[in-house]
Amino acid sequence: MSEVQLKTLGELVESREPGCGLPGEVFIRPDIFETDVDIFFYKHWIMVGVTADVPEAGDISVVDVGRASVIIVRDDDERIRAYRNVCRHRGARLKEVGKSTVGMIVCPYHQWTYDLDGSLHHTKHMGKDFDATCRNLRPVHLKVVGTHVFVCFADEPPADIAKLEETMAPRFAPYDLQNTKIAFESEIVENGNWKLVMENNRECYHCEAGHPELTLSFLPESTGASADDMDEAGRQALDAYNKLNADSQENWEREGYICSAVEELSGDVATHFRTQRLVIATHGESQTMDTKVACKKLLGNLTRRDLGDTHMWSHNSWCHVMSDHAMITYIVPLTPETTLVRTKWLVHPDAVEGVDYDVQKLTEVWVATNAQDASLVAINHRGAQDPGYIPGPYSPTTETYVVQWVDWYAGRLKAHGI
């Protein structure tokens, strides 16, 4: 009996109906997963942490991405650097995943020792002709934007990270995000393919039923609902939202806080991102259960609490920055069916737990939201593997960003010859 010929990833993506989801096969096959990791996590810029992961000289943070591993380190000059987590001798892993503090980076195998600037400092038994300068740690391309630490494993990283930096640096500047500390962090392994995790994040079609805590700070009209589906009261509420949003943005802009949406989501874009300053509901201060600040000591030198929510997406991360704290999340694909979701809550470095902020109030909205999303992604992943699954159409109003994300995914595959 002849074997069934599997469709290539390119053929599967091409086979989808316009405006509809991807075939279920792209979420489960190991060969497709390996292609995804190679293209979207090795050849593109990805977020792997925040500057507060390495607050002092000698602090390191190690992140595994597929078979690759990166060491993020703050050197003796307070500069953040990134290296391949591979000894230049016989390739041993230098450090395990997680955070630690070191004076030098010492290989546990044969004790080759590296300075924090990556230079090979000491070896034994290598002979008088050994040239240590040829065996420094291999650097990984690194870009810090606000507090976000982006790396790219490719020899030549996409140059359009410059647009993200140019756009986000002035938006993040008032919050002084590099001068923050981590108040809390969490990890969830979601039982779903990484693409479904990102699709879920790119829409709020599910928010009203799926995220009761998060929607306390969202005005429902801000999630892309169609006026065609509204009664007269709904249309009046939408008009009121549009006016509130316009008035708030005019007020913020007068004080120098940038508001306008920037979308680098489609076309020949390698570094996929979106940003906008959004109105927060009710008290308008923060994404908390009462929509008031969770930390009394505001970020940077801010004095104004009602600055809305400055959000940013990249293709493996999302964040929400408010006057009192920032919530920053990034993902790492683990297997075709599992994805690590890592979230960090940042506050002013001088804020004191129990005095300036309560961890539960600070985190409860997104702790609940992340858990809910994990459940939703899991049922989406399982259903997409059912033999009866036929991809359906995306909503033209509430899932437009999912369409753009999938189109971007397909375009990047083509750009890399898939």
From TrEMBL:
InterPro entries cross-referenced by the UniProt entry: Rieske_2Fe-2S (IPR017941), Rieske_2Fe-2S_sf (IPR036922), Ring_hydroxy_dOase_asu_C_dom (IPR015879), Rng_hydr_dOase-A (IPR001663)
Entry annotated with the keyword rRNA processing: no
Pfam families: Rieske, Ring_hydroxyl_A
Chain ranges of the Rieske domain: 45-151
GO terms assigned for molecular function: 2 iron, 2 sulfur cluster binding; dioxygenase activity; iron ion binding
Swiss-Prot/TrEMBL keywords: 2Fe-2S, Dioxygenase, Iron, Iron-sulfur, Metal-binding, Oxidoreductase
Needed co-factor(s): Fe cation
Family: Belongs to the bacterial ring-hydroxylating dioxygenase alpha subunit family.
Name of the protein in question: Aromatic ring-hydroxylating dioxygenase subunit alpha
Species whose genome carries this gene: Trinickia dinghuensis
